[in-house]
Structures are given as structure tokens and as C-alpha cells.
Description:
Blueprint: E1 5-12, E2 20-25, E3 28-33, E4 42-44, E5 49-51, E6 54-59, H1 77-88, H2 93-109, E7 112-120, H3 128-139, E8 145-151, H4 162-171, E9 176-179, H5 187-201, E10 204-209, H6 220-229, E11 236-240, H7 249-262, E12 264-268, H8 270-276, E13 302-304, H9 321-331, H10 337-345, H11 349-354, E14 370-373, H12 378-384, E15 388-393, E16 396-400
Parallel strand pairs: 1-4, 1-5, 6-7, 7-8, 8-9, 9-10, 10-11, 11-12, 12-13
Antiparallel strand pairs: 1-2, 2-3, 5-14, 14-15, 15-16
Bound molecules: zinc ion.
Amino acid sequence: xxxDLVLRxxxxxxxxxxxxxxxxxxxxxxxxxxxxxxxxxxxxxxxxLAVPGFVETHIHLDKSCISDRCTCSQGTVREAIAxxxxxxxxxxxxxxxxxxxxxxxxxxVQGTTRMRTHVEIDPGIxxxxxxxxxxxxxDYAWAIDLQLCVxxxxxxxxxxxxxxxxxxxxxxxxxxxxxAPYIDSDPHGQIARIFVLAxxxxxxxxxxxxxxxxxxxxxxxEVCRQTDAHRWGGRVAVGHASKLSAIDEQRLMGIxxxxxxxxxxxxxxxxxxxxxxxxxxxxxxxRGVAPAHKLLPLGVTCSLATNNVLNPFTPFGDCSLIRMANxxxxxxxxxxxxxxxxxxxxxxxxxxxxxxxxxxxxxVGNPADFVVLDCVDGAAAVAELVQPMLGxxxxxVSFSHPAAVIHYPK
Length: 410
Ligand SMILES: [Zn+2]
């Protein structure tokens, strides 16, 4: 069968062999070679970097774009949860869909091709947010693969009716389940219940965890223990773990080995963690960002993600994962070429591994997903905040940014 499209002379991330041609047929990568002979339409990459798109492991589409509805004065986690809970009272399916769509389209033009979004489930919101985001998943399947992770942001065991709603969501197409044990009256009870539900529906788990700077206790221990007990290694991730920024190197390495052994992955959320942590300090404010890059050599799967966009948790956001990698690198003082390459990996191949995406990557047979960056490698993309020029999803151009033009004086 003839090719539908050929990308000419793209540099493939992680491939040292120089630019290649990539042939696309029926939405998949059919051929990769130094020079493909074909009459198919072509897009010239001229040595630019081609990546299979950025992978967002942790974002909240349903509560994005509500800064204008919330008033916050302290900037703490508790205040953010309370402010969003109050705003949720007026959420409708139409409203959630419109805001989530705005945020999703930002992510698409920033080059994100795979995404895990956390969706709040509780008796107040019911399945309203879930139903809106589920429709969005179908409507935007041409541009992005969306995973829905349902979770109880306002507690599970302390919030009657939440468990039944989570079960209904899992029966109705939720891809995985999450939790926020720090907000529950019985954190270990919540962790245990989430593992039971994950086993019942055979789905992965993604917790919000250890979201403060008190290193005297961690729920991470219990999550690793339950992961071992349920043999759920490789299927569990935790987000935040800002406590890991408040411990010394020796203890950090011990926890890293435990995470690697258990098969528990870590997502760091630099924008939210920088914004909400250390609010009890008026100067010398701690950064509160877990040093994920130091855990990579131990074999821990780590990702960097956006979390919140334009709400009390994070009143910023353009959904750029390159910007998030740069923000992390800056806050974590990760500036060597190897560190910058690792930061790029934490928004591409490593989050794909965290999400168990077996068909991610520029390889024959995989979906023809590409994002083109005008740079030579991932380290340069992170260091220079290189903006995506072009996106292709399953062989079809999904977005493009015209290059800026400098108008020199004549
Ligand atoms: Zn989150």
C-alpha cells in the first residue's frame, strides 16, 4: 500500500544516527529510513527534532479556569480545596465542558498528545464533571488520547455517598482511580479502599500524596506496602510528594529505593508545589518541589506535570510541558546537559511509562503522533523553552504555529 504522508529528515529524539524520513500509512508509522522513495505528500523537517508528543500525567481539566470565581487570601492547600469546593456548587456539565475544552485546546497546541486528567467525584458534584470530561475525551480523540482518573478530592471515608459514585464512574468508563488520603478522616482506610476498587475493576491508581513539608510522617510508606500486598507494582503513581523536598539526601535515597522496589511512580507538580508550599514562611520560602531527577538513577519512574490551571491551586498556566520541565529544572537547580535531558524525559518517555502506554514512541507500527521542535535535542528544548511548531496525531496535522518573523529595518 502507498504511504499517505512522509516526514522528511526529522531528527528523532533519542536517536543519534541523524535525520530520517518517516513514512505514515493509515495513521501509523509504516517506515523509518534515511531516505524513503515515495510520491506521497511530504512535510520537510530539515533536521528539526521530532518527538511523539508530550505526555501529561496529571492535570485537572474539570476545575481549570475558575480563578475569577474564587477569592483566596492565604494561598494554602486547605484554602484552595475549600474555595474550589464552594465554586463546584455552581458547576454544570456545560460549564465544565467549556472550561475543560479551553484548557485541553491549550495543551494540544503546546504539543501534548497523551493526557491523564483527574476528575473529582463526590456527592456535591456527582458525575457532572465526569460526564463532561468523558464527552470531551470522545470529541477530541482526533488530537489527544485522554485518560480519566476519578478521585475523591473532598475525602472518601468521611464523605458518605462518594464510594458509590466512584464505583458508578468505574463502571461507566473511568480509566483509573485516584485518591487524596491527606484530606480523609482515615487516610490509611482511604488508601486501602482505593486498592480494593482498583483490584475489582483491574485499573491503575494515581494518588495525590504527602502534599506538605512535614517529614515526620508519610503516606508513601503505606502506599508502597499496599502496592506490594496487592502485587500492583508498575500500576501505582503518586503526585506531589512535596515532603521529599524536606528531607536529607540519605533519607531521600532510601525512599527512592523503596519506590523503585515497589514499582510506585512519582509525578512532581512544580507550579502548584512552588505556589502552595511554605506559606507559613514570610522569607527564605522553601521551594517544596520533590527532587525527582535525583531518583531517576535509582530506577524510579518520574514525571513532571501541570496539575492546575487558572484556579486557587495554581492561578497560572499555559499547559506547556516544556515550560513545566524548564520551571522544574530552574527550581531544582538541574542545569547540566544530563539534568536537562532528564527533565525532557520526564515530560515524554517517562510519563508514557508511568501511564503504561505501550504504543508511545517513534517506531514502526506505533501511532503516527509527532510534535516538531526547532532544536537538536531535548536538553536544548528544555533550556531554551522551544515552542512546538507542528503537531501530527495519527497521521493528521492537528495544529501548527507559524514561525516568528523578525522585521529588520531596511
Ligand atoms: Zn492534582
